[in-house]
Structures are given as C-alpha cells and as structure tokens.
Write a structure and sequence with these properties.
- The strands form 3 sheets. The protein has a 4-stranded antiparallel beta sheet with strand order 1-2-4-3. A 4-stranded antiparallel beta sheet has the order 7-8-10-9.
- The chain is α+β, with helices and mostly antiparallel strands and about 300 residues long.
- It is rod-shaped.
C-alpha cells in the first residue's frame, strides 16, 4: 500500500488558495468520513480519519474556512493512527452545515452540488473524497483506483464528476458498500493530475513506460526464442535425413547441388535457411534452400528414387 499512502500524503499537502475550493475539499472529506450524531438532543458532527496527515489537513481547513482552533472541537486519537474530530458547539455545527451545504441523510451527511459548480472545486472535492475513502493499487502490479462511496447519493455524484472529466467510472458492491473504481492507467493518471497528485501521476507514467519496454523486450525475446526453436527443429530433421543417407547410400551418391547443401547443413546446424543459402556458390534464396532440403528428405525416405531418376 506504499504507493496508495504516498498519493494520500501528496494530496494532503495540496491546500487550495481560494476559499470556495477549500470548502469543496473539506466537504469531500466530511461527506465520506463524517457523521451527524444526536446527543442529548444536540447535533454533533463527527469526522473519523484513519491517518494523522488527514487529521492535520482537516484541522488546517477548519481553521482556514471557519477560523476554528483546537478549542472548538474535541480530538479523540485512534489506537494506531488518525483520530476522530467532534464538533459539538451548536452554532459551529450549524455554521459547518450551512457553509458546506450539507444535508442530513440518517446519520450521514450529503453535500449539495452547489459546492462544486466550478471545475477547480470539483477537483478539490474529489481530492477530499479520495483522501477520506480512496485507495490505489501498486501500478507495478495493476491499474485500479477506488473510492468507497458507501451510499447511492454519493455514488451518483462521484460518477458524474468522473464523467465530467471524461473518465469511465464503474461500481461494485463490496461488503454492503458501494465502491466506485477506475481501471486503466490513462484514466487513473488523468484523475491523479486533476486532483493535484502530480508526483504520483509522474511515477505512474514512468512505471507504465518501463512496463511497456519490458513487455516489448519479452515479446521480442519470446519471438526470437520461438524462431530459434523452429530453426533448430528444422535443422535437426534435415541433419537426421543427411545422416541416414550417409549410412545407407552415402553422401557422394547425391547430385552435386544436394551434396553441397548437405555439407553446409551438417557444418552449420544453427543457421536459418536464409543464412544457409548465403553460403552457397552462387547464393540461393530461402525457398531454393528449402527445395533442396525437401529433395534430401524424399531421398532419405526412398533411396531408390535416385536410381529411378
């Protein structure tokens, strides 16, 4: 998961300069990672994050968008990494809901599409959504990027955002949750670039180029190996024929042009027909060499044909 973690770390460093994009990015995180809870009749926003770097980013966004300090929320560390932030003050909860254009859907928070009407805000929202619930496979092994949308409302929004970027999103239900995924290096590279993960995009492109070179080399090696095997097999059959003739009627019994090709084949078992023909005097093409070797094969099968001709 090192590559996936690196992508999330890089995205966490990309804090937008404009307020509207900061709002969109925070909305992406809260929509995927946040919940609305009711305690003693009061509404509480709880944001559960699995990595410390995401916690730091959310704190920065809360400060930049709302002016919140650490006195304005409760931080509950998780056992390994990450934390849960609880915004409890009613006026601050209300401010977040209004500013981020959030709507309660049971205990989850949906976001109004007004938050990402601009292209830059759509990219910021996707950045936040990926940080909260995204992952990507190691491109050395495969090309797949996923975001656990969880519910139909978010699934539909993310699919529309992908489509707006010219990307073909797919969905699958995994452990009762809706998962959106992209396959193929082109689409994943495009999304990484749009979200601001330029280092990860370049690394993916470099890996893809190297894989392409390795695949080309492997195909050429396999092709060369197949050709060598083919040449070796054909040469082996011809050598067997020549040896049989030598043990029965003798090589000198062959016509002069067949004696010449028989001698060259025995001396050069690794050469192709084309290369063998270039040693003849005068040189002979591949089809001519093949024609002479076919004659030798017929004679090996029926030596009497020499006396009949």
């Amino acid at each position: 998961m090192a590559f996936s973690s690196d992508v999330r770390t890089e995205l966490a460093e990309v804090i937008p300069k404009s307020l509207h994009c900061r709002i969109a990015m925070l909305a992406g995180i809260v929509t995927l990672d946040g919940k609305l809870k009711y305690e003693d009749g009061a509404r509480i926003i709880s944001i559960r994050m699995e990595q410390d770097i995401i916690v730091d980013t959310v704190k920065r966004l809360l400060e930049q968008v709302f002016g919140f300090t650490e006195d304005d929320y409760v931080t509950v560390p998780r056992s390994s990494s990450g934390a849960r932030l609880r915004i409890e003050a009613p006026e601050k909860v209300e401010k977040m809901i209004l500013t981020l254009k959030l709507t309660a859907r049971e205990d989850r928070l949906d976001v109004d599409e007004m938050v990402f009407t601009r292209r830059c805000c759509r990219n910021s929202f996707l950045r936040g959504a990926y940080m909260a619930a995204g992952s990507i496979s190691n491109p050395e092994n495969s090309y797949q990027l996923e975001i656990v949308a969880g519910r139909p409302s978010v699934t539909g929004q993310l699919l529309e955002l992908f489509s707006g970027l010219g990307l073909k999103g797919h969905t699958v239900i995994r452990r009762g949750q809706s998962v959106i995924y992209l396959k193929g290096a082109d689409d994943i590279s495009e999304l990484l670039g749009q979200m601001g993960a330029s280092r990860a995009m370049m690394e993916l492109e470099n890996i893809r180029i190297l894989k392409g070179i390795r695949n080309t080399i492997n195909r050429e090696v396999n092709c060369d190996t197949a050709n060598i095997t083919k040449i070796t097999d054909a040469a082996g059959r011809s050598i067997d024929d020549i040896r049989h003739i030598d043990e029965t009627i003798g090589i000198p019994a062959l016509p002069a042009e067949l004696q010449e090709i028989a001698r060259l084949r025995m001396e050069n078992p690794e050469l192709s027909l084309q290369e063998l023909g270039e040693l003849l005097s005068p040189p002979l093409g591949k089809s001519g060499v093949n024609h002479r070797l076919r004659k030798i094969r017929k004679i090996a099968a029926d030596p009497d044909m020499l006396r009949k001709s």
